[in-house]
Amino acid sequence: MALVTAHDALTYSLKWDQAQFAEEAERLAEQAARIAANPPGAGRNTVSGDLARLIQEAAFLLKRAATIEAGLEAVRLMGAEAATTEQ
């Protein structure tokens, strides 16, 4: 039976986070495209609400990106530590 290390678990979690990031970024891009295609005008006065939601979702995406980047750095450091302890 293989032992699951913290490095393995974090790597698996990061792959899931990266996939979620890609999906969320795609939705954010689609939302931005809809806003761009439908500027404020007669009969359309909800752009400010759409933009507020876009900003909120972008902030969440930024948080996920920072979490992924920190995780990737942790995985890198775990790999470096493992390499030095094996020598």
Q: Report the principal-axis shape.
A: rod-shaped
Give the DSSP E fraction (strand runs of 2 or more residues): under 5%
Kindly report the average pLDDT value.
90
Unreliable residue runs = none
Assign a percent range to the helix content: over 70%
Output the number of helix runs.
2
**Which structural category do the helix and sheet elements fall into?**
mainly alpha
Work out the count of structural domains.
Answer: 1
End-to-end separation in angstroms reads: 25 Å
Oligomer: single chain
What is the alpha-carbon Rg in Å?
20 Å
Concise account of the structure shown:
The protein has 87 residues and is mainly alpha-helical.
Architecture overview:
By secondary structure, the chain is an all-alpha fold. The protein has one domain (7-86). The chain is built from two helices and no strands. It has helices spanning 6-37, 47-86. α1 (6-37) packs antiparallel against α2 (47-86). The longest helix is centred in the last third of the chain and has 40 residues, at 47-86. The chain is rod-shaped. The mean pLDDT is 90.
